[in-house]
Amino acid sequence: MSARRSRSRQAGAARITDEQIDDLMSKLQAILPEARLGRNDRVSAAKVLQETCSYIRSLHREMDDLSERLSELLSTTEMSSAQAAVVRSLLM
Predict the structure, then answer these.
(1) Which of 29, 30, 65, 79 could form a disulfide with 83 if both were Cys (CB 3.0 to 4.6 A apart)?
(2) What pLDDT, on the 0 to 100 scale, is given for residue 62?
(3) Dihedral angle at the C-alpha atoms of 79, 82, 88, 92, nearest 10 degrees?
(4) Packed helices 81-91 and 45-76: angle between N→C axes, nearest 10 degrees
């Protein structure tokens, strides 16, 4: 078998079908908060991907804010080393 034909078969096996893309878009749309996409039943794939990226960025910002607040709280709170160890283990 030629190298070209072999590559063609490998590429074909790795291709994702339109049905699989639709399924993945539906799953993404389902996990986004409804307010992000509005109440429309059918939303473009581009809109779902844009909103997914925006939502992930907002979750990262929220996580960073919470982490900073927790650090501040831990630095001002007097804890025994045993309590501190428990808190650290919960955060890891």
Answers:
(1) 79
(2) 96
(3) -170
(4) 170
Q: Is the pLDDT of residue 5 over 70?
A: no
Q: Where do the DSSP E strands lie in 1-92? A: none
Higher pLDDT residue, 81 or 21? Answer: 21
Measured torsion, CA atoms of residues 22, 25, 26, 28, in degrees rounded to the nearest 10: 160
Please give the structure tokens belonging to residue 56.
């992930």
Cβ neighbours of residue 54 under 8 Å, at least 6 residues apart?
36
- How does pLDDT run across 28-77, given as a tens digit for each residue? 988 988 767 766 667 888 988 999 999 999 999 999 999 888 888 777 77
Q: Is 36:13 a contact under the CB 8 Å cutoff? A: no
In whole angstroms, give the CA distance from residue 86 to residue 77. 14
